[in-house]
Design goal:
about 375 residues; 11 helices; binds guanosine-5'-diphosphate; alpha+beta; globular
Length: about 375
């Protein structure tokens, strides 16, 4: 066991020279601002000089400004943290990105959370055009969850950014948690921090949010937001998921592909043997079939380019990173090689490219999608 000293509310490990955050218990580090326990060196020095309790930046902001910052963990730590939820009697609030359901799924979640009930929260509903039937969307998500072995007690479509259904979400959390704690889990970029910040406003109002932890180094960066004396909403760090397209992009490119506004469909009338590029990220070939209508629901920030199939290889080799962007700069070399998945479409269908949107095909035909191997591409019945 590590020996811990506590002075002025400050905890320090004596066996290794490091400090623990008074709020969440994470080991304080000054290297990586996206990982748990981050504190800028200047702030840490000041806290130590003034003999103040040490907080990581995330807890500091939450305590002082009622504002939560995202944090991420390694796979191992994340799974360790998740499995500790199995030992609790609590509600699991599972936040997923409606725009990237595949990239949002935590495989084996069921095993880690035990028999605790799951409330499925599908965020970013604001991206879906009004023409998309919300019930169909909900059915699709529930079918999807089931494939991953999750049978949520309920599913709710929300938008953290636009504050859609946030009070309803809080009502549902209160209904299903039955006075117990609620753990919020989700991979990075699903909008979990934005959502928790909106929930904090609803729960706390003007009340100060206090972060708490029992033992240093054991909480792995969890943050408690008290509902009342006995129970809390517990935020857990997100995990970077290798099935997310964001995983393959530089930070500023990620900003580009994460859509902020309602998707604007773009329709192309294509003959067989024509190709559409999504920047340099993905290529869609319409290889066989009658003249067809393909509608792309993708972030407006990614330009679509049309070429003839016979010229597509050359076009990509020549223009990837310039006309076809993102990727850009050095990341062109790091972006994975594109792999082909072939779909034979029999009736109006959507081909979903996880994290980048989807293409609706009106009539039968053959579509070949070229994308990084880890990024899921699947066919579903059209949701429009
Ligand atoms: P976290 O990593 O899960 O904590 O995600 P963040 O809260 O940092 O959000 C990741 C990205 O998703 C940011 O670009 C947010 O602006 C965006 N985002 C969060 N909530 C929504 C939402 O309801 N709608 C849309 N369109 N974007 C959202």
């Amino acid at each position: 066991m590590e020996k811990i000293t506590q002075r002025n509310g400050r905890r320090k490990s004596m066996t290794e020279n490091h400090y623990f955050c008074m709020g969440c218990g994470a080991t304080i580090q000054t290297e990586n601002h996206e990982e748990i326990g981050y504190t800028p060196t200047s702030v840490l020095t000041k806290m130590l000089e003034q003999e103040e309790p040490v907080y990581c930046q995330r807890c500091f902001r939450l305590r002082n400004y009622n504002e939560l910052q995202p944090a991420s963990l390694s796979d191992d730590d994340f799974l360790k943290m998740l499995s500790s939820i199995a030992e609790e009697d609590a509600l699991v609030v599972y936040v997923v990105d409606l725009f990237d359901l595949y990239g949002s799924m935590i495989s084996g979640l069921k095993r880690f959370i035990g028999n605790n009930p799951v409330l499925f929260v599908a965020n970013k509903v604001d991206l879906y055009p009004k023409s998309v039937n919300r019930n169909r969307l909900k059915n699709w998500i529930e079918r999807f969850a089931k494939e991953y072995g999750i049978r949520p007690v309920d599913t709710i479509l929300v938008s953290a950014n636009k504050r859609i259904q946030i009070d309803e979400l809080l009502d549902k959390i209160n209904e299903y948690r039955q006075g117990k704690d609620a753990y919020v889990v989700g991979v990075t970029n699903v909008g979990k921090s934005t959502l928790i910040n909106k929930l904090i406003q609803s729960i706390g109002g003007t009340k100060d949010v206090i972060t708490t932890s029992q033992f240093p180094g054991t909480t792995l960066g969890q943050i408690d937001i008290p509902f009342d004396e006995e129970s809390s909403l517990i935020d857990t760090p997100g995990i970077i998921h290798r099935h997310q397209i964001a995983h393959y992009l530089a930070e500023k490119e990620v900003k580009k592909v994460l859509p902020q506004k309602e998707l604007q469909p773009k329709t192309f009338q294509l003959n067989a043997e024509q190709t559409i590029f999504f920047g340099g990220l993905v290529r869609v070939d319409y290889t066989k079939g009658e003249r067809n209508s393909l509608t792309f629901y993708t972030p407006q920030t990614i330009e679509l380019h049309r070429t003839k199939l016979e010229k597509a290889d050359e076009f990509y080799a020549r223009h990837n990173g310039t006309i076809l962007t993102p990727p850009t700069g050095d990341n062109v070399k790091q972006y994975p090689t594109l792999h082909k998945t072939v779909f034979s479409v029999k009736e109006k269908s959507d081909i979903v490219i996880a994290g980048l949107g989807w293409v609706t095909i009106q009539k039968p035909g053959t579509i070949e999608v070229w994308s990084p191997k880890e990024v899921d591409v699947i066919k579903r019945p059209s949701i429009i």
